[in-house]
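Write out structure tokens for Rhomboid family intramembrane serine protease.
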Amino acid sequence: MSIVNDIRTAFSRRDNALNQLLLINVLVFAVLILIRAIFYFTGIGLYDDILRFIALPSNPVALMYRPWTVLTYAFVHEGFLHILFNLLNLYWFGSLVREYLGDRKLVNLYILGALAGAFLFVLSYSFVPVLQHAPATIVLGASGAVMAVIVGAATLLPDYTFNLIFIGPVKIKYIALAVVLISLAGVDGGNTGGEIAHIGGAMLGFLYVRQLQRGRDLGRPVQAVGDWVGALLSGRPRLRVTHRSRPAEDTTAPRKGKLVKPEQEEIDLILDKISRSGYESLSKEEKQKLFRASQK
């Protein structure tokens, strides 16, 4: 089928992280809809058990038996509007992160945001007095991971402008501030656990980009695990690199056929310039350096 081929093509490309994240969420949503319909018509009452198997529990003991849920919950949605708004935000803000930082940094931000949201959710229900005695619950949805992407994009490019319907041009730092305040305002409502996960993701998004601007990539463990899993699934052996002594050469000049990676200090300066004056203020040379750095 052409659909299967389209999906296979989307996942075979190495520079397609944003579409892959969107597609995983859509596929999980579609599969759950199909399972729910089948169980309804056949009278099988196991749908809630399947949902609990992949959603994140607030009870740490239950989490010990389902540790994978710290990540799987971030790809599970209930309701069309739930997934629609999450994926729209992921597409809009994820496109910015991907353009300026590259595919790997986008995946790092999404995964770390999901983990941070899960951590704050479980921690809150374990130690916050008003939540300790609350009934056990679960949380699901990409909102925590998407919040990390939103706040990460706003931290990287605070003055970048979106044209919102009925409102007009708005800087994304104000959009990020608004969504964080909405989450804070909703912690005493009917989605306490979800709002807490949002806040955890937002905090991670800010921290990740700030550390990246200082030359520290908090996502290196995510990349290492992803590379290992990719090599395992593809069946390709991991390459071992052996360094040999070579004659001295001029390292300042680019070698034909190879991209020369700009130094981290240069990238930090370029990112600071973007934060102050926007992407359009960069020279052609600075844009090329930023692009080459995103290929790492």
